[in-house]
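Write out the 3D structure for:
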Amino acid sequence: MRSFPRGSHKAGANVSINATLRPPERAYLMHWSYAISTGEVEPEDVPPQAGVEIEWVHKKSNGSHDLPASRAAAAAMMHGQDIAHAPSLKSLHIFGKAIDMSITWRVR
């Protein structure tokens, strides 16, 4: 894999590696933060994940669910990870078999 970025660089391209191995815990956080913030799922419907201590359901002072706060917190997490598209829970990144990269170049 190293030959591709080197060869691209020699051809005038700029290659930037954005993501490689992604632990399943991170995939869980990415997937569900996106789903909650976009309204695809209710925070209380998110299944738990071993090794991840998170409370998706935010509550008001009276103990009732605060859906806007839950969605806002999920959106903040999503934006903090620069998520633009729905992340998969079964991405090849989890198995170390995927790479995200940006390739840019200027025509001379």
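Helices lie at 3-10, 24-37, 67-80.
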